[in-house]
Amino acid sequence: MALTKKRKVLPSINLLNGLEQEAVLTCLKDQYNETKEFCKSECYSLNVDPFRVCTFYDVLKEDSAMGLLEEIQNMEFTFKENDLLSLHQTVDLNEVKTPFISAVREFIYSEIRTIIEKVTSTRFNSTVDMHGIKFMQNDNLLCHSDCLNTRHTAFILYLVPKTWSAESGGSLDLFNSDDDGNPTNVGKSLCPKFNSFSWFEVSEKSWHQVSEVLEDDIRWSISGWFHSDDAPTVRPIADEFDMLLNPPTDSDLDILKSWISLKYLNLEISSEVQQKFQDDSEVSLADFLNPEKYSNLLAELESMEWLTVGPRNKKKYQVCNNPSETIADFIKLIKTDAFAVLLSHFTGLPLSVNYDDPDCDDFADIPFGMISSSVTRWEHRAYSLLSDQEVSNLPDRLHIFYHVDVDPDYDVDAGGYVSFISHSDKEPLLVVPPQNNTLSLVYTRTDEFGFTKYINARLKKPFYCFNAQYVARTPTEELENEDGGYVSSDDA
Prior knowledge:
Layout: H1 22-34, E1 39-40, E2 44-47, E3 53-56, H2 62-73, E4 78-81, E5 85-92, H3 99-120, E6 128-135, E7 140-144, E8 151-158, E9 172-177, E10 183-190, E11 197-201, E12 208-210, E13 219-227, E14 239-240, H4 267-280, E15 282-285, H5 291-301, E16 305-309, E17 315-321, H6 325-334, H7 337-347, E18 369-378, E19 383-384, E20 391-392, E21 397-404, E22 418-422, E23 430-432, E24 438-444, E25 448-452, E26 463-471, E27 479-480, E28 486-487
Parallel strand pairs: 14-20
Antiparallel strand pairs: 1-2, 2-3, 3-11, 4-5, 5-6, 5-7, 6-13, 7-12, 8-11, 8-13, 9-10, 9-12, 15-24, 16-17, 17-18, 17-19, 18-26, 21-24, 21-26, 22-23, 22-25, 27-28
Helix pairs in contact: 1-3, 2-3, 4-7
């Protein structure tokens, strides 16, 4: 007698909340496609503004939900961190064969999938992504749309503790959009609830985030996407970098003496600084301003009016509105030719026609000048992201950062540091933490970019930053050294 392989029996996890009833499903479909107001029943809720998000309640039997949570908790998680996120993720759950994960996967891919297809009048293809996700304290996922490739509908099965509340953080925040489709402010925050299943159709306006987890607890979930051949697509746009150069303003070199610590005006010191910069492509100069000027700056920065800027898929921080006299004078200082000459001595880069260095003959026809400058305030929940769009003709740049009022006990785990990466390698090339009264200089090539890491609740107080960028091309015959810095051909 031939032996028959016994089929594995999966746990019973059937939907208990009534969505399997045709009348309930018909009502949900009508509301989803017609209503303009929030709807709620015993088994689901429907948020319509700023975009539609539907949540099913009590989707699994209680013991099945707990069994699933236990299997997820016993899995291995990989910590993922970049400009957009900080979270822990499992492998693709399509590859996992444990009982409850297998049963829930089949349940999502069949019953749940059928319900969403009926409600949205959509036909999904065979591709479904699904991962276990955990957000620990201070983890977050910043503003994004999920609009990528063939993704059609995003979903989250929440396995959070039953005590989870708005004070725990980790909410699903939905963003309003302006007339151009850019995310502005949070229009609705949805608090995770144990054994609930939230989903929404992906679009160019489905801007959302997972807010920072604020308590010492874990936001467990299973997240993924249903895919469709008719999913919305976003085509990348290649921005042309508009290089509007601002040549340094005329000034007397004596202006530097009233602001800058005299040790940095010493040619021997500046030569040492330049050597380090050329070896490492970066340098930080502590105690850069004299104490009196630093104190005046600090006092006025604390009393300024600050304006929060966006859009949220690119940045969230504050800029100075109508700077006071001392702040305006410092901004003028960093735009002067005297300051450009000083930076040239620190870096060896030709940022001024008055930089007298015989090694710079090859720079004669190379444009120079400042291309941006700003005064910013950084507090909890501030950040800047890498652009989703490719930028063409971006020049090599010299970045300058000058920080004020940084907590002496600042911890890099709080965020707020500037991280530089290259287009070809997503691992950080360099991290620049904020440091009190310190001028930091960083040289980047055309395919290298920087972002300011999201500031979490560990930051004890806000800090300020004066920053600027200069066009900073090096001679054509320069060779990059093995450590990532640069050397002239005469030294190679």
